Amino acid sequence: MQTPSDTPIPSWAVGDITVHRIDEIPLPPATGPWLLPDATPQVVAGQDWLRPHFADDDGILRIDSHSFAFAVDGLRVLVDTGIGNGKERANPAWHDLRTDFPERLIAAGFPPDSVDLVVLTHLHADHVGWNTRKVDDAWVPTFPEARYLTARAERAFWAAHDMEEARRQMFRDSVIPVEQAGLLDLVDVSAEGVRITPSLRLVPTPGHTPGHVAVELNSQGETALITGDCIHHPVQLAHPAIGACVDIDPRQSATTRGELLASLAGTDTLLLGTHFAPPTAGRVVAHGDAYRLRPVPTT
Ligand SMILES: [Zn+2]
Questions:
Q1: Ligand 1 mean position, distance from CA 274 (Å)
Q2: Digitized pLDDT (tens) for each residue of the chain, 299 residues in all
Q3: How far, in Å, is the centroid of ligand 1 from the Cα of 232?
Q4: CA-CA distance, 244 to 140, in Å (whole number)?
Q5: Structural contact between residues 87 and 94, judged by C-beta atoms closer than 8 angstroms
Q6: Cα of 233 to ligand 1 centre, how many Å?
């Protein structure tokens, strides 16, 4: 495995904010056909621009797990916390990982004790994993000085949901310890979104989950949007109706994606994909009867 010392931390400038990508792992090739079953090799082959970065020559989608870290308005912020190490998971690609994610955070200048705010776009296993780490036999908050923040609607949905055992396990090891430490803040997110600090806004993007939010950054006239899972892969720019097998409300998910992409197309907003393989970021431009991603290299 490469170590942070021989792998630079990719970053992008958004006004005077520097957004760092904190890599966890590339997900295995089987992830694409499972997650986005309608993005068949034929569909992918129809979009030349996806290769080589976002798909391979056989039409297999590249899908990564990473977080984004940045400092804004005096706060050191992490958006989503990946899969985590040592978690018992039914999905073999997520089970009992041993990645160097904490070392990468440190290399980016965000040691866990220094993080003030953890934004959780939604409460799925691959977005809350590093909420906690194992100390002796207990799962404890990885970011003990941080407030963890998610939409009230998201927490409420899962509280009322008849969860299968695997999901209960995820809540037990990655969500409830944060709640019990008094670190989880639930935010009301209106249709217009909610501003957390002058430069940081949560944008409601429901469908994948009911309380899903994207994260918007504004600085010096520049804007970026971190997708969370309202867009899993750039192929969905060309085919906004293609949803994920795990979308709670597939119709709402497609509507959200269509509206979001229409609002971004032709703008300078930097789209930062939570599961997009490198180069990960780009601008949404018109392409055929939909869109494509025009990548923006790291700075
Ligand atoms: Zn995800």
A1: 7
A2: 445 556 689 999 999 999 999 999 999 999 999 999 999 999 999 999 999 999 999 999 999 999 999 999 999 999 999 999 999 999 999 999 999 999 999 999 999 999 999 999 999 999 999 999 999 999 999 999 999 999 999 999 999 999 999 999 999 999 999 999 999 999 999 999 999 999 999 999 999 999 999 999 999 999 999 999 999 999 999 999 999 999 999 999 999 999 999 999 999 999 999 999 999 999 999 999 999 999 999 98
A3: 7
A4: 31
A5: yes
A6: 10
Write down the residue that tokens 């799962």 correspond to.
139
R_g of the chain, CA atoms, integer Å: 18
Q: 243, 233 in Cβ contact below 8 A?
A: no
Quote the CA–CA distance of 130 and 109 in Å, as a whole number: 17
Cα 292 to averaged position of ligand 1 atoms, centre (Å) = 21
Distance of CA 155 from the midpoint of ligand 1 (Å): 16
How many A from CA of 194 to the centre of ligand 1?
22
Out of 3.60.15.10, 3.40.50.300, 3.10.180.10, 3.40.50.1110, the CATH code matching 11-295 is 3.60.15.10
Expressed in angstroms and rounded, the spacing between residue 285 Cα and the centre of ligand 1 is 24
Ligand 1 (single-atom ion) residues, CB below 5 Å: 126, 229
Domain boundaries along the sequence of the chain: 11-295
Distance 266 CA to ligand 1 centre (A): 26
**DSSP states of 236-276:** HHH-TT---TT-SSHHHHHHHHHHHHHHHTTS-PEEE-TTB
Q: How far does residue 228's CA lie from ligand 1's centre (Å)?
A: 7
